[in-house]
Protein 1
Amino acid sequence: MLKLLQRAGQWVFLRVERVFNHAFGEEINPLYHLGQISFFLFWIVLGSGLYLYIFFKTGVEEAYASVEQLTLNQRYVGGVMRSLHRYASDGMVLSMLLHLGRHFIFDHYRSFRWFSWVSGVVLLWLVYISGINGYMLPWDGLAQFVTVGTAEWLDWLPIFNGTLIRNFIFEGAVNDRLFSLFSFMHIGLPLGVLVLLWIHTQRVPSAKTNPPRPIMAWLAASLVVLSLIKPAMSQGPANLAVAPSTLELDWFYLPIFPLFYRWSVGGVWLLVGGATLLFFALPWLPPKLRRHKDAFHLMIRPDNRIVAAREGETLLESALRDGIAFPFDCRNGGCGKCKCTVLYGSVDYGVHQSEMLTAEEKKEGKALACSATPLSDVELEYVPLAPLGGIEVKRHRAHIESLDRLTDDVMRVRMKLLGESELRYYAGQYINIVLPDGEKRSFSFATPPHERGPIELQIRHIPRGKFTTHVFTAMKVGDVVEFEGPLGSFFLREDSRKPMIFVAGATGFAPVKSMLEHAFHIAMKRKMVLYWGVRSLKDLYLPDLPKQWAAEHSNFTFIPVLSEPKPADHWTGRTGLVHEAILEDYPDLSGHQLYACGSTGMVEAAHPAFAAHGLQQDDCFSDAFRLAPHAPRQAERAELVSLGGGGGSGHA
Amino acid sequence: MPKALRYLAQAVLYAAFVAVIGYFSTSPRYEHLPPDEALIKLSFSHAGARKEACRERTAEELAKLAPNMRAQTVCPRERVPVTVEVALDDKPLFRVVAPPSGLAKDGASTVYRRVPVPAGMHRVGARLSDTPGGEFNRGGDATIELKPGHVLVIDFDAESGKFVFRS
């Protein structure tokens, strides 16, 4: 039944949104910015309210008179402000209800979204209370109706039991202090709304609170026009000796008031209480008998970040939550800005505008990150909007300056730029070597950014690997290579004081070397420890370098870990998996930053284990490479090829 | 869609949005009280008599109590509910039994009733019982012209023990 209702609602929403897309375009379609519109209308309410407050007088006679004077004597300022205050409040209720309804219809209120849903329901009720309180202030016929009705409603509660209404029973029972109380409430409640609005958006990654400017301009102008055409007016002074007969009721705020007299006050309490409980409980209805499914992991390129996706979380939400600058706009499957390529794994495409993601695009592996959810571990690639740190990603040419075989299967390649003096990058970033046939292979800088010499790469030979076999068998000094970069967001964070743990698997040592040498160069005083995990002793291809660092820098420690030491190694050091060695030494990682670089298998195994030992998401940075090449889908857009690396094999 | 047409469409849709706001902010009009009706409101707060009279403790009862608790007179706190009946033109309009407030049922009974009645000249009577026996020991009436929309408030003045009719 619920699913049927949601499917029907989605059908309606998608069609209405499509019509709006034709009129507004996807980027400024107001239906994609309902929450932000509510925010914007709140600012109008607040601004106009402050103006009204200047002229409002808190007294039985003065309240009505001051509002009348404001409305009639300064019609084009005070009158418009009063109307704006009312109409923006009404618009806020309307946009909030649509916002809430849309999330319900699209099933975006369960699982981790419960917090936003519940805080949104509390917010809606608080807005209602604020609005109802606001209608009491002008002390006109409507104010009398609302005040008496509220007192009658609250009097149903045993705590009041008929005592509240005695404050409004006779003409003359009301005194000036009541309006001071109303005013105080009408300042305090909206402040509460503001705090709740802030809380409401806290768990929404990269939440935007302002709609696009054209929407703001259109909305403000429309409301001003409405205020001029139909100014908000008072409905005669309040008189408790006479019951208002016919009223111009604000149906956005006051729809339950007539029910007090059509049903019963108790019946309305049942309705409101029941609706509130239902709304609060909705994220858990119907209750699930089975426990949560295991979360999937996303490998997001070109950042090379591994992110844990929560149940029901879209690819976009997971990426944004992890601080990835994933491009997006509408978040509703309507604009296509977050279109990405799924390189590996499967996704549920979710509900979206069909023209934004065609069947052909799905076949090509495209997905809209804002509506797609993972059905397995997923590797995906997006096109970044802005380069990291303003460093532009460009194609470069370099010639091979030296080739040094560090071990049987690791080659140190030094390249000198052709026609350029230097290349700016962050320690830990990587480049894509562009092969003659257009394929790309990713390798991290092993040199720190400050070093003005050749660029060093450390390349491990992959059996049958096209490029690495070329490096080991045919490449010679003087050869020219083409590459693009710098790429990736795996770099040293210098804005923290936490001690750092570096985890390198095999040639994952290269970016770690770059980061450590940069850290030593800038005299970083933070504690640093490097765990370098390899199979056997011969795989520690630069064993003396970290030892030298440890000797020169008291804040640095080096711990090599061998997973399969050979008898000939006579190894007496640490053995086993490198991440297990770390967890043995650091059972609580909550106070550390961790940089992990190695094979996808290593990083994927280590990531959840570190998280389980308290490592904060914000303090975990990873760069993973795939040694076993898988068939990358051909990226359609040229920039994707140039930035992403096409699922690159042999990274590092 | 041509740019001008798009702006026009946007204007139409925003106009529709504010038209919805403009309309439902005042319409449809709500008839709270039909034009030929008036209201009678009964509202008062009055404590009924104690359910049981004060009595003297026996010597045995006093002996069982701690020395500092040995008060000779004991007065049960619970009060009787207040029963009130209102009649319009000598016909019963409503009857309310209001229990005493408080966990020990020793507080005042509070009554609020709101009844629409036809406008015009009416004889309104009210009587009240606040004693353990349940007899109506207080009452009052008045003949009042209730104009359309006017509110007649029936209050009870505990000090004088009389009903007050205010319109």
Protein 2
Amino acid sequence: MALSNSPAAATRPARSGGFTSRTLAPYLFLAPFLLLFIAFIVAPLVYAFYISLYRDTLVGGRQFAGAASYVKVMGDAKFWGGVWNLVLFGIVQMPIMLGLALLFAIVLDRGQVYAKGVFRLGFFLPYAVPSVIATIIWGYLYGPSFGPFTQMAKAFNLPAPNFLSPGAMIFSLANIVTWEYVGYNMVIYYAALKAIPSDLAEAARVEGASPWQFARLIQLPLLWPAILLTIIFSINGTLQLFNEPYLMRFLARNTVNSSYTPNLYAYSLATSNQQYGYAAAVSFVLGIVIAGASYIFTLITNRRRPEQ
Amino acid sequence: MTATTDIATFEAAKRQPGERRRSRILLTLLLSLFLLYSFMPLVYLVLSATKTNGDLFTTFGFGFGTEFNLWQNLSDLLARDNGVFMRWMFNSLLYSTVAGLGAAILATAAGYALAKFKFVGRNLLFALVLGAVMIPQTALVVPTFLLLALSGLSDNPLGVILPSMISPIGVYLMRVYIDQGVDNELLDAARIDGAGEFVIFRAIVLPLVAPGMVTVALLSFVGTWNNYFLPLIVLRSPEYQPITVGLATWYQLAQQGGGGGQVLFSIIITGALVSIIPVIVVFLLLQRFWQGGLTAGAIK
Amino acid sequence: MTKIFNPLGRTMHRRDFLKVAGASVVVVGLPAAVRAAEPVKVLVWSWVPDLQLQVDMFNAAHPDIKIELVNAGQGDPEYQAVRAGLQAGSGLPDVVQIEYQHLESFRQVDAFADIGQYANAHKGEFPEATWKQVAKGDVVNAMPQDTGPMAMLYRKDIFEKQGITPPTTWAEFADAAKKIHAADPNVFITDALFSSGDWVTALLWPMGWKPVSRDGDKLVININDKISKDFGAYWQDLITAGVIETKPGFNNEWYTGLDTGRYATWLTAGWGPVFLTSFAKTSAGQWRAADLPQWDASKFATGNWGGSSLAVMKSTQHLPEAAEVAIWLCTDPEATKLYTTKQFFFPCTSALLSSPEWAGNKMDFYGGQPVNEVFAKSANAVTPFEWSPFQSFLYQSMSDEFGASIGGEGTLSDAFDRIQDAVVTYAKEQGFTVA
């Protein structure tokens, strides 16, 4: 590893006034982060849990409910329906998005294309666009009566595509999310590929391995930690989907109902139903589902992890 | 980079020049298709920003309108609601920059502590911090708002900036980066020479991990810039709102009748276009750094 | 405008003795010019565009009251802020813009002050149905700022081309729907906004629909009664025949649809005419206004879609001033007239509704027709309507269930049944006694 040259620092005499205790140091370094972490993540979480133990009623005010809300969530068809929507969504969307990202990363790493830099930057650009704006733009593009695709279809006398129909909505949303995140995941894989030692490529060439064998047998296994990381992030992002369906409601309220995704459900419980306690319980159960899904996935893949 | 060169050489050893060029062209075409896909909505955005409201709905999406209205749209955008758009841009820039810098420093300090010091509960703490990523935003945002309201901080930009400085991914990245990029011998040598811990951190560690810090800063900058839900709930006054909430508010305004609703689409589209530009600029400026930073993060 | 309070009198009521004594000492010590009372600040939350104009007029006319205007969001975001403020016990304005449909849900949590002592004097300035929205007997919580009585805007050219006369009854409307669509499959008589609970409610309103009403301390929930079944069957016919669309409104597709003649009518409220002009450029001159179709040609009745009031919060520290603000902003002749020209509100004061200047205003966009007359007639035919204390939930349930039916899960009438079940369950959960 390259180290910067700073011999002067090593021989500087001890300064008074800075914290010099080695045992105390880690806590002090952690303190700023932990303070904010406790204030804005732990405290709201505890408060949210506290709220979830209560029911809000318009007539009786706030009443203690204990675990009743959690029991209710377990049996709530709307919640699990939303989870199921996202499972379907994820099964289709994640492999495509991550697969494309991996493919592009490998190809760009090989350098087997022209204008590599343009592609790298161009693929990453959608990530710079806030999901709010991405959904607004795609919403325009999807327009069933007057969007550009419909206009083009009409120009060629083809039937107009309906991206907003109940059957197509999951895919239309999946498309937006894929568009937004392929570049992001590609960059992670690309950087990981760059970290693979060059002597491995040399050794493979000497052994007579083809480029695809090299990719499959050497690059992918070494890339595995990065792939696992992106899968966990994707599971997390998928199960928490909110912005895209929320904005899509303005164009397709009939299809995207108030419980289309669990987060949307929690949001409508809090805002339309005034059921804050129940909304908090829904959010917690969702968090458990996400943690569970990630954990199960890690277990499965650890058992089948490709050997180097 | 040596890896690429070697793979390219490796390829070269395996194939004839003609074959190589043909597969290069094919792959370039394949990637170009996806590039087209990536750009398409942005092209639509740019073209739409040049149209009037009437043209937006009636002319072909990927073509120009009947008149070039970009400058008029821009001036309408800046004039709307007493120039609140520039205020929103300023807010976004302020929040994202402060949050980005803050996140980088906090994550680096925390990552350093986790990487180079052994203490009780170190791994547990690390796991908890990472676990925070899995918490749904809706679980946190409403209680955060209520807590802020109780402590008098609601409708205060700090309510957006401070939470945005928490980057568990940043802590993870910096921990890994420091773990691999900072030699323990160097640190020990400095301690033997009598340097204080803070001095060591500032003078030895920080310069070594600068690329990683820039990565974390960039990720937090973009994350804060694009954040919609937190500022939506926490901030009330339009003059504190960032660009995401501001544009979405106009969008909702345009979507609702009920008296007083007005048609704002050309302004929203133009605003959306303008709002993307700073992030792109930041990317372009910092792209050489984030590659290096993410490299370390991917190695386990 | 008469002053309704006396600064010193108010001080005596609202401050305890020590504070008054202290203030008196300071006051005595100050020169007379400075002794004039500092204006009372009244915080108003409103999303009405350019309301600052009326606010400035008020501030100029009232040296002792100063309005501070804040836009805290339009609709739901503002209501959430109010609810959060009610929960936290702080951060609330004195006067807040609340749409009529949500007043009841805030009354349920006792959010409002009673400004009856100040406002009842103005009762006669509004149509009866309008006043009943903000007042229950002598208890007045808010002042009506604008309303949205229903009528029909239609494309004269499309109807003429098909040789159809604009319908005056719903039976004629259904016939026209079928004819129009048969002649051109790209044209529909209207886009039925079933995703908007308030639009649907506005059409059920004149039929006498009483979805949720109070009977003593009980709630009577009657969502799936015969009225709604008849309504559901009527529209289901049109949906099944494919002669109407049911897409959400107020998005780019819908605007374009209205402008390019995809939809031949828009069943809309009093604010509709001006709103239409803001985006329908190519169809200018082709639109006309007509009465809302009727179920019974002998009984002219309409409903209301939209409009808001200015409510006074119970938490206000300055009740008389806040009441004055709400009343003035909704009754002052100059201010209310400005609403019609600057903000393009549909006025709700009887004075304006019957003023020849406003009602007789001929609009080129409507081929020179004075469309306001049509809507003014509607305003006086709006029947009383009672809102539920959980209107947001009811609307959401309506959107969800109508959407499900439109997507294939049963008919619209089935949707009403599902909504009934959902609302009864919800009401019981919320602690109401359901009759």
